[in-house]
Amino acid sequence: MVDSLLLTAARISTFEHQRGLTHASGFFFERDGRLYLVTSRHVLIDEPTQHHPNRIEIEIHTREDDLGQSTGFSLLLYAQGRAVWRQGRDEAGEIDLALIELDRAALPPSTVLQAFTPEHLMPAGDAVEVGSSVLIVSFPLGFHDTLHHLPVVRQAVVASAFGMRFQGQGYFLTDARTHRGTSDAPVVMRDPAAAEGQDLPWRLLGVHSARLDMAGRDLVQDETLGLNCAWYADILMVLSEPRQEHGAALAAASEPAG
Question: The dihedral of CA 143, 139, 164, 87: what is its sign?
Fold first, then answer.
């Protein structure tokens, strides 16, 4: 039996029409019967690097008893010239996170996946001690179990005061070795209160964003800090609100295609 945590992650490939561009990590989130793919905004569009895919493809397992069976599921990123994803911001500015709703009817009938839900988020007021062990589930540099199409996990620890916005930003820090392709991986810890036999006995604490570095670091004498930013997972509740309830905290993406 494979750990259900590994079935929450999705390997993402970006394309400009048929030309392959990049690989990234993502995961599934479900709310009120709606299924979403969570990824980083820079996976979908990144002006500094002139990264402008018009579709992505995720790998979907199609047989529970044989994880070697999978298929690619393609998603167009624009409809009528407008981006289909949702992205967020707060008082500190843009949040490098995006949510794309998946059409369940379009998925293969035998699709095998696990999705986090609002119940997996850390309840308000619950404490997470600094130094607590967490896992980051991802496809670093595109690396994964190519036979069973599964991600790998990296160990990390919470490296800043959880519940507080580090330097006023909407994230906390983790201490872990990470690589390109880890962006938008779930940051989780085992739920000690999970009922025996629960399908997904994990708490979703955050969403890995990027490595944190110091602008003034001496590139010859000083190693990188080895610290990473992780957006607090409660932003998913804002991003998954019904369209008519968005408000100022949430912006449906509006970049024109091309």
Answer: positive
Q: How far apart are CA 204 and CA 181, in angstroms?
A: 19
Write out pLDDT tens, residues 213-237.
Answer: 555 655 555 556 568 888 899 889 9
Rounded-to-integer distance, Cα 243 and Cα 207, Å: 22
CA-based nearest residue to 112, from 194, 14, 10, 191: 10
Distance between CA atoms of residues 64 and 85, nearest Å = 29
The model scores a pTM over 0.85: no
Q: How many CB atoms lie within 10 A of CB 20?
A: 11
- DSSP assignment letter at 195: P
CB 206 within 8 A of CB 187: yes
Domains of the chain by residue range: 4-252
> What Cα–Cα distance (Å) separates residue 140 from each residue in 39, 68, 250?
14, 20, 29
Fold of the 4-252 domain: Thrombin, subunit H (2.40.10)
